[in-house]
Amino acid sequence: MKCVEVPKAYAEKTIRLLRKYGVLDTEHLITRRDDRIIIPLRDDKQVLRILADIPLEIISCEPPTRKRVKVRVPAHDVIGNIVIVRENVLEFMDKDELIRVLHTIYPRIRTIYLKKETTGEFRTAVLEPIWGIDDPITINKEYGLRFKIDLKKAYYNPRLAEEHRRIAKEVRDGERIFDLFAGIGGFSIHIASLHRSTIYMNDLNPYAVRLGIENIIINKKKIRGVIIPLCMDSSLIPKYFKQSVFDRVIANNPHYSHLFEHVYRYLLKDNGLLHLYFVSSTKECDSFLERYFSNWKLLRVRKVIDYAPYVFIWRADLVKP
């Protein structure tokens, strides 16, 4: 291979120019011979032009290969300027090593949290700060939309961003949609940013609803549809809404969505579409739907995200019979 040999005094400028023009070979080490620096090249064709004012020689060389250090990176989520890792990571990685690795990968983060569990009826996370300041409020971006999140007071999963967008693209202008377990407004705001539809954004958690309203305001310049925020127990919704007036219902409450079949049936028009999210292993997926939704027409089932070993969060698209 080829290297460029320059006096030590010119080494810094040479390296900077070679890197700028993409001809510095980063797979091999820069070496030294007396007061001369030997710099490996990816391509020597442009070197004389790039380094026109530097005294140099182009030589044949065999520099040592750069050793690559393998770094164990634990499973984690990045939410705005916060990184969250699960508590079981500490079973195979020292806390100091964990902090060093994450801070090396994400030098601009301000907080690293250890997630101990998800608890309560609002599915909120129990978080322990292990680096940085203990402030769970951040802004996360999804497809150009900005979402304010309080990770200790409202459920949020950044891995659902693609799913939010996928469902939003399926909606048509003019639809009436009930986002039954809306959280901070992921599905609702994505849909309203793409379509002139009416979306009822409901959640039992008042903190999540408040954040949802803030997120509507934050994204108001991009919203085309109408979003109506609600804070209601989903089981009581049939008492306050007319029957069979919605084109689509989104039921993103994976552990308990099967308990509200009567609500979905009440809200949807004939042939209305239900996006049902549920937790199941691959083996039990079919039996779950047969047990709770045997009378509904199944259009498709797909894995959305991993939940645990051999267990996934699924989405079933079901048509009201």
Q: Could you please describe the fold and organization of this structure?
A:
The protein is of the alpha/beta class and 321 residues long. It folds into 3 domains: 59 residues, Alpha-Beta Plaits, CATH 3.30.70.2580; 60 residues, Met-10+ protein-like domains (GMP Synthetase, Chain A, domain 3), CATH 3.30.300; 163 residues, 3-Layer(aba) Sandwich (Rossmann fold), CATH 3.40.50.150. It has 8 helices and 17 strands. The strands form 4 sheets. It has a 7-stranded mixed β-sheet with strand order 13-12-11-14-15-17-16, with helices on both faces. A 4-stranded antiparallel β-sheet has the order 2-3-1-4, with helices on one face. The longest helix is centred in the middle third of the chain and has 13 residues. The protein is elongated, with a radius of gyration of 27 Å.
Number of helices, counting only DSSP H or I runs of 4 residues or more: 8
Shape summary: elongated
> Do you know the CATH architecture of the largest domain?
3-Layer(aba) Sandwich
The strands making up the biggest β-sheet line up spatially as 13-12-11-14-15-17-16
What is the highest CATH level, the class of the largest domain? Alpha Beta
Supply the CATH superfamily name of the largest domain. Vaccinia Virus protein VP39
Fraction of residues in helix: 10-25%
Largest sheet: 7 strands, mixed
> How many domains make up the 3D coordinates?
3
Tell how many strands the DSSP assignment holds: 17
Structural class: alpha/beta
Q: Which percent range describes the beta-strand content?
A: 25-35%
Q: What would you call the quaternary organization? A: single chain
CA-atom Rg in angstroms: 27 Å
Q: What order do the SSEs take from the amino end to the carboxyl end, as H and E?
A: EHEEHEEEHEEEEHEHEHEEHEHEE
Mean pLDDT: 94
Q: End-to-end span in angstroms?
A: 70 Å
Which fold name fills CATH's third level, the topology of the largest domain? Answer: Rossmann fold
